[in-house]
Amino acid sequence: MVTGNGIIALKRESDVKVENLMDPIPGTLAICGVTFILISFISQFYFHATMEKQQSILFITNSELGQASVILAVAHEFLIRPEYDVHIASFTALKNSISELNEDASRASSNSVSKATFHVIDGKSMKEATGRATEFLEMHPHGINGALYAYDNIIKDICPDIVAVDPLFSQGVDACNNLGQKCVILSPNTLKELVLQDQPGATPLTKFPAMASGFPYPLPWYYIPANIYLIFRFLKARRINPRLVTLAKYRETHGLASKIPCMFEGFGDAPILLPSTTEIDYDFVVPKHATSCGPIIRPFEPIAQTHPEMDRWLKQRPTVLVNLGSHILFDAEFAAQFASGLRVLLDSRADIQILWKLKTQGQTKKQLYGDGGALEVISEAIKDGQVRIEDWLPAQPIAILESGNVICMVHHGGANSYHEAISAGIPQIVLPVWIDTYDFALRVEHLGIGAWGNRTAAPRVEASELGKALVRVVNTDESAGMAANARVLAEPFRKREGRVVAFKRIVEALRS
């Protein structure tokens, strides 16, 4: 674990423990430590080339479900096949999800199944290391020394058959690169993040909107100079950032490549697996080393079986699901604007209901529901059960989407939310808040399956703008077309499940 002295350990729940090694460099320079710890950890697996033995697969991921969900989905496919020995390495926060994964796999198969072994990486998770109340894609620090002794002594002796690694867990990518370990990159993200650099000619500069820009797609010619400028500024910021420059030098002194792997690069020739396809993304050329799997969704049980009360409520009326994930915490003003936007929709269509996952910044019930409170404008609808507010959805979002009663999903532009709605064939309203989320707002409009709901007010919302977007998607002449487009896009993925495609590609890489 990380302490005030920078002590760090990686341990398998049953036996592996490395600790009490001091971190000589605090803060972000300590990021190298997890790389060496993972090198040590990977070395705990014994390679068996014979078919009589289980083949071992190690998944390495951040613990935030935004990154881990695709890992868990594909791990399920290995667990229901007893010829594989499944291991998952992450931070403590993922532990309960691994238990649920094992239980789900056991229920899903009438045959004997494997159980995933969870290996804890002690230290700060991505969310903890940002120091924010929300989750955000930012490099996170760890301790340094971990298991340098193992790097010298046992690294060459044993290894897993293959590693599937979350590309945002750069230390895992580092470990595989340093070991020459056979691996695949398993990402929840899109073609834009992972293969933009592989596009022909100048198209990375002139065809696709720069990250976080919200520029239109296809990119109009008069946006091209500004687009090139933003891309240049992004590359320059990475090149001259003092923190990254110092870290690059520090990495070199510890035997790592100076360039830090990230969601855009650093994977070498490793196969890349992702849920994005050209049908549900921008018009990319997909390189040979990338596999467009389609939405990579965990299997789920029907909500009627797991949460009958919620199922009965959903069946009462057509439902709009509002799920801004665990990323967004509402303050009173944000909640009030949002509630007023929902009021516009309810006034337009009295026959619908709204399920709203609402996480606040600690407001009291009186501040939310009392006279003059943030939600006063929809208080009667809440009292009547037409608006149902939950701080945590009782069932998996995909199970709610697939209930047959949801007519629209409102989300913040997370990759998993987007792909779940695609899989379920549900129109979307996207309220982007940072980085890649703006691209998802552009995608739903480009594909004709929804609307960008806060184009003016982003990263927050404004009541009338949100209300207009809700009415547009749910109760205008455009609504039926959006719903039809969403159903058409979903159809191929019902016959070709993304997690199965990813499983087959990993097995192919395992045997190559």
UniProtKB/TrEMBL annotation:
InterPro entries: EryCIII-like_C (IPR010610), UDP-glycosyltransf_plant (IPR050481), UDP_glucos_trans (IPR002213). Keywords: Membrane, Transferase, Transmembrane, Transmembrane helix. Coiled coil: none annotated. The keyword Transmembrane applies. Residues 385-480 form the Erythromycin biosynthesis protein CIII-like C-terminal domain. One of its GO terms (molecular function) is UDP-glucosyltransferase activity. The chain crosses the membrane at residues 25-47. PANTHER family: GLYCOSYLTRANSFERASE. This is Erythromycin biosynthesis protein CIII-like C-terminal domain-containing protein. The lineage of its organism: Eukaryota, Fungi, Dikarya, Ascomycota, Pezizomycotina.
